[in-house]
Model the fold of this input.
Amino acid sequence: MASGEFQPLQGMSDIHAPEIYLWRMIEERSRKLFNCYDYEELRTPVLEKVSVYQRSLGDTTDVVKKEMYSFKPSKHELAMRPEGTAGTIRYLAGRGEEGLNARVFYIAPMFRYERPQAGRKRQFHQVGVEATGEPNPLADAECIALQQQLLEEWGLTGSKIQINSRGTKEDQILISDNLRGLLEEHRGNLCDDCQRRMDENVLRVIDCKNEKCKAIVATLPEMRSFMTQESQDYLHTVIETLGQMGVEVEYDRSLVRGLDYYVHTVWEITHGALGAQNAIAGGGRYEIALGKKAIPGVGFAMGMERVITSLEACGITAEQFAPKGGLWLVSLGDEALAENMKFARELRGKGLRCGMELTAKSMKAQMRKANRAGAKKVIIRGEDEIAKGTAIIKDMEEGSQEEVNLSDLAEMLSRP
Ligand code: HAM
Done:
């Protein structure tokens, strides 16, 4: 690990080999599956106006109130992206009709000024999707099914999907009024945060982790009991559709999610290998009004760092995805070195992984380097071989070697 001045900032990491191969596996398999579901990639800028987040995530959410890296270089206050949904909707809102029925995905770094701890970083990465369109329980079910299939593609087992509904915006007013009424007599026994939440955002009292608050919440009726029948049926259809698709989910009455844009379905995926920060993903249906018109959609985001910790706990390691084998060119003398520069270019042009020393070194030193690089085959050329138009090819696993014509070699090496 780097020490002192060479360490990255607290809560941020350098992502390097061999771990990077696990990251690349996740990214490559995600892109492939997103293509099968007809999602297009979107890359929004890291910086957005703070108002984009205030108007979508909500003024009183922890992310907006406490966790944004924001600054004001000129007229507008800007923030580094703390999540991907708001910027995506900002982009789609500018696309007119097309933006109202779009399917996009992103794989991108996010920034939240949180207290770093296991599983909680200040720069982390999300794989996420957003599908805009009018509320439709089948769209929510498809989104959850896609997420579950992603986990399968990555090879992750042992995760659990929890689901709930927050109802429509109108339901939420009713739920909030009722909760506030019921909680009033318990106000003095709630934690300080929840006393504040009662006035600001009473729904958040429901998922408070404080034991005293949890005990009080357990005595209250479920949120869905305050919703219209239509909203209850909506959630029922999502769960039923998922059941028909073979995707197992668990109803969780205390799941609320910490962002204000959600309506109807909300869900989270947790993994047993993680500690207190055990959510590998969160998602839900939302309505975001950045302009005059609210844009409805559904989506999710998966935290890559937490997914990787969970994969490793399942015995899936980066080494399994590291590039293996390859060729190594050994040059004996300056003439061979110059010739091998040309030959390496030709081999690389054929898509072969190929390394060589770029200064004259002894045969022993070059073979040592070939070994360290894990080369499967070494090609040795000196003055004699150059003069004859040949090369010696050595199989590093079998230890055998033979002299071959250079004209046949490139073709021979490209064979699988
Ligand atoms: P979120 O629950 O805030 O939702 O984040 C989604 C996931 O990102 C979390 O489940 C977690 O795995 C990861 N994550 C969040 N904060 C951190 C952190 N500080 N360190 C490491 N990982 C973290 C959203 O961001 C929504 N935009 C999801 C969404 C998309 N809803 C609809 N569409």
User: Anything to note?
Assistant: Residues 83-85, 112, 114, 120-121, 124, 126, 128, 130, 279-284, 286, 299-301, 303, 305-306 surround histidyl-adenosine monophosphate (CB under 6 Å). The first helix runs from residue 20 to 36. The chain has 14 helices and 16 strands. The two ends are 38 Å apart (CA to CA).
